[in-house]
């Protein structure tokens, strides 16, 4: 009888290793399934603007627009493009029209100077994103000038929040303005990641219990 104990011990070890191996496979599979969900939570990013950041414009552009890397959501609200002149007035109504991955708003510029476009749209993942970019308006001779207003018809709340140092959140960079709520996306991504890990762990535990009961 004593000579058979090592055989039982070896069989038990192989059984444990088999259980752990199966649990690891299931856990890894569940984690791989969660990866696409994490990627899907990424926000849109701006790839171009018209006029471009820092561009010198000499003719009425007719509109300002931006293009992102993915389709935007057209919810009827939540999209705006505010064009503010050097005199502090707004030009155009600020109402953005969504067309696939682009957003545009009609505008007639006024006095020469630097104009800032503050925008807000809804990303494909349902999150609002916003930012701003600027360009220079130097109208050619004979170009008719537009009239500004104290407040736009649309998007009065689209202006970026003021930072403690006096700047604004989401200032546009070389690519015409990146999304300003990237920091807000971090908790969302962490939730997706945490959910994927929990699913993987739960799948591993369930598999271990099932195999252990069967054994």
TrEMBL record:
Chain intervals for the UniProt region annotation (Disordered): 153-181
Coiled-coil blocks: none
Pfam families on file: CopC (PF04234)
Keywords: Copper, Membrane, Signal, Transmembrane, Transmembrane helix
SUPFAM superfamilies hit by this protein: E set domains (SSF81296)
Record field: transmembrane: 190-211
Alphabetized InterPro entries for the sequence: CopC_dom, Cu-Rt/internalin_Ig-like, Ig_E-set
Record has Transmembrane as a keyword: yes
Biased composition (Low complexity): 153-166
Domain CopC: 43-136
Gene3D superfamilies xrefs: 2.60.40.1220
Protein name: CopC domain-containing protein
Organism: Agromyces salentinus
